[in-house]
Amino acid sequence: MTVTTLTDCSASVLASPSSLFCGPALLQPDLATVLRLVLLAPLLEEWIMRAGLHAWLLQRTAPAPALLASALAFSALHLGSGLTAAALVFGPGLLFGAVYQRWQDWRRCALLHALCNAGALTVCGSVVAPYFALS
Predict the structure, then answer these.
(1) 107/97 Cα distance (integer angstroms)
(2) Fewer CB within 10 Å, N side or C side of the chain?
(3) d(CA 14, CA 12)
(4) Which residue has the higher pLDDT, 97 or 20?
(5) Cα-flanking dihedrals φ and ψ of residue 34, to 5°?
(6) How many angstroms separate the first and last alpha carbons of the chain?
């Protein structure tokens, strides 16, 4: 089982879901996949990348190199989902890093990350709404 966490946000930006941008986990997710992509991955990844690595880098270097290095590390974290996925998450990694640098709160990054993943699930043909229906 491959974790696909962004083929995510950039796929929704590109608005042309295909097998290049939408892996199997995004095309036909089960409830566990939705929870992993919208809850678990954003919380763990942003806690590690922003509260951990990015904060550490900001103590040791200027903001721009810290931002770039954390975005590169975020991309490297996604290499298990393939080179395309790792390349596609670089942009969102920069965005999440900029949010962290502005507010110094990794939880905002996790929320943004979760929204991007939910958007990717939706764009890639998945139906997220039934998992959260109130009826």
Answers:
(1) 12
(2) C
(3) 5
(4) 97
(5) -60, -45
(6) 32
